[in-house]
Write a structure and sequence with these properties.
871 residues; alpha+beta; BirA Bifunctional Protein, domain 2; 6 domains; 9-stranded antiparallel beta sheet; globular; binds adenosine-5'-triphosphate; binds magnesium ion; alanine-tRNA ligase activity; nucleotide-binding; tRNA binding; tRNA-binding
């Protein structure tokens, strides 16, 4: 059975059981501080389980893109080494939100596997929760046991412990016992030797879990205790690639048609064969797996970057590059070439891959190239470290520096050292790594209390589109303590005018005032899933009273100018550059706006002018805001609204229109474009391959900008003695400056020459060494030139020069290579030791080294000491 058919059979089966089939949610989460990526099928439905939102249908089924590379579920290091864990994988799932429970979930799982897919019962095992005698004191799941008994013989129902059979979303939240379904796909011969029963949950590559049925019936509270959930839910997740392995009769996920096209392509490009040598196979699996994860993330709008989710993606790609570099001998970019076949094979189920193929290729190629450059530099640095090291062990500190500062992977360091017959102080490295981890853990440590609920209310309503003030009641609050912000309170109201950060727009600030005149400042507003959270330093005194909640209208207004201008900018870019322009990120602040978009070359000054003119024409055109709330997404799209990849839209959307600009948007906007007054681009540049960034300002910020520019202009003109043509005057100055520099350079060369002549005559022979220690008046470059030129005439030279420059001291030591070898002299050591006289230090190579210091008075002493090295 082809993988495509396996996927659709699953969805069709649950559709027949009255489930709504929904598309996969984007993999990168935006409104969830506890999770970076969707790591299981249930993550997009968290709000339904927590009771913060209601699904339209209480039965849902889908295939969800999951990524397990960070946090509680992190399989990254396994990937490549085993045959059944991936970074990105599809999880097939069916859900019941307070509807059916264990009986149906078990019956349907059995029916699907054995009847629809025709899997032989003989290879199946199931597990049920055995209960726990720890603090939770949970009973065994006899209910599930009794249901399973109807389908499968009891010798293949195994009891499992809390680790395997009690599923928890995270530290807090819904949880419950689960039943896993395992397959044993070993040969009859193997089975005769060891029973499958003894291999369940033992990391055997052919006895693996394929499906987990979770029975959500508890909620884990912050204090660690469990309470019963008011409604019981079903959450199931089946690994699509593992299911394909079983149904296609192969022994590895990588031998299914999900992966073989990628593997064949890697073989063609690298001219290495899969299935011959283990380390090559690992590398091929790593690359086939990682290219999927990276491509899907980019398609979802998450580009590789230096922090957060982007950094995780960058690390995945780098891991792939590293394996290609080390084990497949690929020193140039090639992973991007796999995107073509990937989008051909998976583009039907995931159209975002097809639509953005070119962008994905460009981004991956650029990332690969830049990391390969890093690897090259790292190799040079590593060689230098090797040269400078005495003995056969490289210190952990040095290796850590290479890893931390230059991004040079530690396993590569170890490998290269091994080839050179050197060792790495692994303990020292681990200690450095641990130190760094402790530092960042301390910085991000946070404790979150349980919510104190004052009264239960319907969903918190946002009224901030229509008003900046409202009378509100506190429904719940909690305290959060972190290193970064200290003690903070998070407040939730029944209704709120405060806009929570989202869609690129910053959260509102403002204050709360009670009837007694007590005021609390709201410092920020954010959304956690569906809940709007207000951040305050203190808890209000009279928590049960009604407050007047007031949004900072000035900040809101400036932000709105920037948000509306962002829409106009988006429209302008598509108009001026073409409709290949797609929004790739946006940040709307009160002071400026930032807009990232796909486009392949730098904007010309004329294009920038056209974009500005386009936006400003719409500002002076006084276009009114036309807002449609809660309309079906299809209606908005039919009107001409653009939907973005990687954005999660509900069934109904809000459409914002100014003239011909129509966007699906939850943000706040000016009532009329005339309010913006003026739009000005202040920078344009690249953020990644094929992604450009524009920063712009509006309204008062533009006035300030012009004023400051004008001021700078007049100051410059003043400095240029009020030249009529200041640009020309500046160019003349620059030219003059270049000429002067040239003259100085040639004068210095002459000086060096005459000094060299004089120095040669001052050489003193001691013990067969031409020796000189002297103070000279040249810059560092000049000294080096003189030393090396003299050096070329002798093979037994020892020079130590001292220089005073700008109140600082410099010692430079040159020793002929022959002396370094025959007399065990080392310039690096000389300057390190003599550095103490000038209160400084330095180093370099055995034949040339320098030390800088802050005490020029010590130069003479240092020069005097130098003789001891040769006598
Ligand atoms: P395992 O013990 O094999 O790592 P798990 O207990 O982590 O599995 P669940 O969290 O229960 O798995 O996820 C449900 C299903 O998703 C599993 O039964 C499996 O088929 C699949 N799955 C889990 N992790 C991965 C992964 N990294 N790659 C591919 N499939 C996976
Ligand atoms: Mg796992």
């Amino acid at each position: 059975m082809k993988s495509q058919d396996i996927r659709s059979k699953f969805l069709n089966f649950f559709e027949e059981k009255k489930h709504s089939i929904v598309p996969s949610a984007p993999m990168v989460l935006k409104d969830d501080p506890t999770l970076m990526f969707v790591n299981s099928g249930m993550a997009p439905f968290k709000e339904y389980f927590l009771g913060n939102a209601q699904p339209k249908n209480n039965r849902i089924s889908d295939s969800q893109k999951c990524l397990r590379v960070s946090g509680k579920h992190n399989d990254l290091e396994e990937v490549g080494y085993d045959t059944y864990h991936h970074t990105l994988f599809e999880m097939l799932g069916n859900w019941s939100f307070g509807d059916y429970f264990k009986k149906e979930a078990i019956a349907w799982a059995w029916e699907l596997l054995t009847e629809v897919y025709g899997i032989d019962e003989e290879i199946l095992y199931v597990t049920v929760f055995e209960g726990s005698d720890d603090a939770d004191n949970l009973p065994m799941d006899t209910e599930a046991y009794d249901f399973w008994k109807q389908y499968i013989t009891e010798d293949r129902i195994l009891k499992g412990n809390k680790k395997d059979n009690f599923w928890e979303m995270g530290e807090q939240g819904p949880c419950g016992p689960c039943s896993e379904i395992h397959v044993d796909i070993r040969s009859a011969e193997e089975k005769a030797k060891v029973s499958g029963k003894d291999l369940i949950n033992k990391d055997h590559p052919q006895v693996v879990e394929i499906w987990n049925l979770v029975f959500m019936q508890y909620n884990r509270k912050a204090n660690g205790s469990l309470e019963n959930l008011p409604d019981k839910h079903i959450d199931t997740g089946m690994g699509f690639e593992r299911l394909c392995m079983v149904l296609q009769g192969v022994q590895s996920n990588y031998d299914t048609d999900v992966f073989t096209p990628l593997i064949r392509e890697i073989e063609t490009i690298t001219k290495k064969k899969y299935g011959k040598l283990e380390e090559v196979d690992v590398a091929i699996r790593v690359i086939a797996d990682h290219v999927r994860a990276v491509a899907f993330s980019i398609a979802d709008g998450q580009l590789p970057s230096n922090n957060g989710a982007g950094y995780v993606i960058r690390r995945i790609l780098r891991r792939a590059v590293r394996y290609g570099f080390t084990f497949l001998g690929k020193k140039e970019a090639f992973i991007y070439r796999l995107v073509d076949i990937l989008s051909k094979k998976m583009g039907e189920a995931f159209p975002e891959l097809k639509a953005q193929k070119q962008l994905i290729e460009n981004v991956i190629k650029e990332e690969e190239q830049s990391f390969l450059r890093t690897l090259d530099q790292g190799l040079v640095l590593l060689n230098r470290i090797v040269e400078e090291t005495k003995g056969d062990t490289i210190s952990g500190e040095k290796a850590f520096e290479l890893y931390d500062t230059y991004g040079f992977p530690i396993d590569l360091t170890a490998l290269i050292l091994g080839e050179k017959k050197l060792k790495l102080d692994e303990k020292g490295f681990d200690a450095e790594l641990q130190k760094q981890k402790n530092r960042s853990r301390a910085a991000s440590e946070m404790s979150t209390d349980d919510w104190t609920v004052l009264f239960d209310d319907e969903e918190e309503e946002f009224v901030g589109y229509d008003t900046l003030e409202a009378h509100v009641k506190l429904t719940r609050y909690r305290k959060v303590v972190s290193k970064k912000d200290g003690e903070m309170y998070q407040l939730v109201f029944n209704i709120t005018p405060f806009y929570p950060e989202g869609g690129g727009q910053v959260g509102d600030k403002g204050y709360l005032e009670d009837a007694h005149g007590d005021v609390i400042y709201i410092l920020d507003t954010k959304k956690e899933n569906n809940v709007i959270i207000h951040f305050a330093k203190n808890l209000p005194k009279h928590i049960e009273e009604t407050f007047k909640a007031v949004v900072d209208s000035k900040q809101r207004y400036r932000t709105e100018c920037n948000h509306t201008a962002t829409h106009l900018l988006h429209q302008a870019l598509r108009e001026v550059l073409g409709i290949h322009v797609e929004q790739k990120g946006s940040a709307v602040h009160s002071k400026y706006l930032r807009f990232d978009f796909s486009h392949f070359s730098k904007l010309t000054i004329e294009e920038l002018r056209d974009v500005e003119n386009f936006v400003n024409a719409r500002i002076s055109g006084k276009l009114p805001l036309i807002e449609k709330r809660n309309i079906p997404k299809e209606e908005a799209i039919a009107d001409g609204a653009i939907s973005l990849f990687g954005e999660k839209y509900g069934d109904t959307v809000r459409a914002i229109r100014f003239g011909q600009s129509i966007e699906l948007c939850g943000g706040t906007h000016v009532k009329n474009t005339a309010d913006i007054w003026h739009f000005k681009i202040i920078s344009e540049g690249a953020v990644a391959a094929g992604i450009r960034r524009i920063e712009a300002i509006t309204n008062d910020a533009v006035k300030d900008f012009y004023f400051e520019n004008n001021r700078a202009y007049f100051e410059m003109k003043d400095l240029l003695n009020n030249a009529k043509e200041p640009v020309k005057a500046l160019q003349n100055l620059q030219e003059e400056n270049t000429n002067l520099k040239k003259q100085i350079e040639s004068l210095l060369k002459d000086k060096a020459k005459s000094i060299k002549g004089a120095l040669k005559s001052e050489l003193q022979e001691i013990n067969g060494i031409q020796f000189l220690a002297k103070k000279i008046d040249l810059d560092a470059g000049g000294i080096k030139d003189v030393a090396f030129e003299l050096g070329s005439q002798f093979d037994n030279l020892f020079l130590l020069f001292g220089t005073e420059q700008n109140g600082k001291a410099l010692l430079s030591c040159y020793i002929s290579k022959e002396l370094v070898a025959s007399r065990a002299l080392n310039a690096g050591q000389v300057v390190r030791e003599l550095g103490k006289y000038i209160q400084g230090g330095g180093g370099g190579q055995p034949f040339f080294a320098t030390a800088g210091g802050k005490n020029p008075d010590g130069i003479d002493e240092a020069l005097k000491e130098a003789k001891k090295y040769v006598s």
